[in-house]
């Protein structure tokens, strides 16, 4: 039986230590760990009821409901603030969650962006940054989407998400599962 080299073991160890709150930068968005001081800026985005109209929790635009969501995000250890790369203004949030080392899997979810930044380019760059980061550690990224959230279903499909059944989310609600495998994900040309 062949013994693993120290370099191989180090690479495996590094891969197993998933970084839930990286700082990532693209041309359109900057991503960093969510902080308590981000509440007001993020709530100014989340207060738009149209953001949540297809969401399983459509009242998240209410300050107290969003406050609970925000505290949960902070305590999760995987929440990220998303800022416009041009002016630095907060435009949304996303999260890494549910790292499963045995399955080599992580979930990307709880994502929302200001309506002023809808239309594909910002979400696509955000998810590409997060996917590139995730695939340094895992082979599979999953997205759980509410069955009535057609907008999010289309957005996940646009970035390569493939339907993979259903699963109960953390609140016990049935969600559609979309999966992206690292081997299938298009890498940008070097």
Automatic annotation (TrEMBL):
Under the heading Pfam families, the entry gives: Acetyltransf_3 (PF13302)
Q: Which residues form a coiled coil?
A: none
> Which SUPFAM superfamilies is this protein grouped with?
Acyl-CoA N-acyltransferases (Nat)
Give residue ranges for domain N-acetyltransferase. Answer: 29-181
Molecular function GO labels = acyltransferase activity, transferring groups other than amino-acyl groups
Classification via Gene3D superfamilies: 3.40.630.30
> InterPro entries given for it?
Acyl_CoA_acyltransferase (IPR016181), GNAT_dom (IPR000182)
The cross-references to PANTHER family, in alphabetical order and at most eight, read: BLL6696 PROTEIN (PTHR43610), N-ACETYLTRANSFERASE DOMAIN-CONTAINING PROTEIN (PTHR43610:SF1)
Can you name this protein?
N-acetyltransferase domain-containing protein
- Can you name the source organism? Catellatospora coxensis
Q: What does UniProt list as this organism's lineage?
A: Bacteria, Bacillati, Actinomycetota, Actinomycetes, Micromonosporales
